[in-house]
Design brief:
Length: 606
Amino acid sequence: MTLNELKHQGLKKWVEEAVALMKPKAVYVCDGSQEEYDRMIDICVKGGLATPLNSAKRPGCYLFRSDPSDVARVENRTYIASKTQEEAGPTNNWINPVELKKTMTELYTGCMQGRTMYVIPFSMGPVGSNIAKIGVEITDSEYVVANMHIMTRVGKKVLDVLGTNGEYVPCLHSVGKPLAEGESDNGKWPCAPLDKKYISHFPETREIWSYGSGYGGNALLGKKCLALRIASVIARDEGWLAEHMLILKITNPQGVSKVVCAAFPSACGKTNLAMLVPTLPGWKVETIGDDIAWMKFGPDGRLYAINPEAGFFGVAPGTNMDSNPNAMRSIEKNTIFTNVALTEDKDVWWEQIGYDAPGKLIDWKGNEWIQDKANKAQEPAAHPNSRFTAPARQCPAIAPEWEDPKGVPVDAILFGGRRPSTIPLVHQATDWVHGVFMGSIVGSEITAAALDLKAGTIRRDPFAMLPFCGYNMGDYFQHWINIGKKTSADKLPKIFFVNWFRKTKDGKWLWPGYGENSRVLAWIFDRCAGTGKAVETPIGYMPTVDAIERPAGVSEADMKELLAVDIEGWKKEIADIRENHYPKFGNRLPKELMNELDAIEKRLGK
Ligand code: OXD
Ligand code: MN
């Protein structure tokens, strides 16, 4: 489509201004067609950025290798540029928006020379759903266009919903590498150096400006930038929730279903839980989303969730037929792989794929790589943050209602993190505010040597939203408390804290995880159904030891340890929250959370 075919005058004007600033050699409005996707991929293949994979083993699949400096989200170059720093809060990087726009306008000037500007109209959520939002991304990256085709709903049908004056979130993106006359990328991933990368959010005007990175969350602006950072601000203003949560549907042997949303920090197994294959006979888990949930109240006073995305942007290493067979099947075809290793027969390989490297590989940097299992220090063949981008509809476990525009009513919300000690396998909040307290203390334990921090230190990641909350996190806690006042308690989802990562003192896993987590989900299901045996403890409701069936390899003593209240450990936890965590939020910390902390401390006793 051409620019002149755009019926929305505001959108047309915004694009024209971007053209004048960025000076692309051509402008193209995306229609979302297969032909368009194929063309993007073809440009990347011809330009040496993409390698077609073995068409018998991986039909419709391609491998990209990024620049070694452009492999992950750049949190220290990500900004919440609200009018005041107070609005962005203590957990976000802030630059005055006027100053930031000035800096970025300079960077954007002429930044698309020699490149095509693509205008991508996209919907986060089923097109036309009253929970969905529309965005328009301007980009100069064919890789971004192709990935956006998979991760969001793109094209004409979105423009039709937008009409002549509908609302959209403008998202500007450039890789920040203009080309001189006759120059081409020559197979080199285009991006700007780190100190020129900016991933900026303007919450008051609901704008996103991204410059200098072509990778993942920095560049696919519908995902973390729109669906979390900007959407969290819109959700606060409109009375709903935009969360870093998977959504799954669980069905018991009697055919009754419940919906569970779960927030875990990045790399704690959200995709695995969302696609879990239950070991409990007769139970079924189906996937609705693996990363983001938007929840709005329905007319019946319950919270309804949609997955705003249309694909999975999953971490490849560690994904295998044991850890996540449904993900493995989702990526058999029509998938974009980024920074994984390439086999001689043009298939993909990564660490913990479930089998040894089949012969000589090309690693993620493009070098020859031969597996040397004796060498524990060998550099990985796939980058630890290498990814697959796959259409959600290809997941064998996708729930039939995953695209229901009404969303699905949520029965339970789970929080969790990597906690080798103290936090039990599962406990349940006694009420909504207690549940908000649970969300506010989410974190993972730092293991020895990581990040120069003392081993055993908890890195807090409240609601798993630390890198994704678009405003002051103290106000975000308050927003969660307020949501609980908007309906009657029986209509609110029940809130739980889970921990699959408990270890023995000598470092062995106490709980097998993966499919066995279905045993914990079954107890959560039963609690939502009003059954499920529980005892009230100082930290909340906990299953009786016989309420969760023990998996093979977990002794009765292990189970008791997994389900014990570690009074001394919890006292340390409370002290850490009081001294190191809550003070960060100053007077924006809701008093309800302090009360909750005091009450738990009191219940734990002297
Ligand atoms: C992600 C993340 O990529 O949370 O989903 O980092
Ligand atoms: Mn995520």
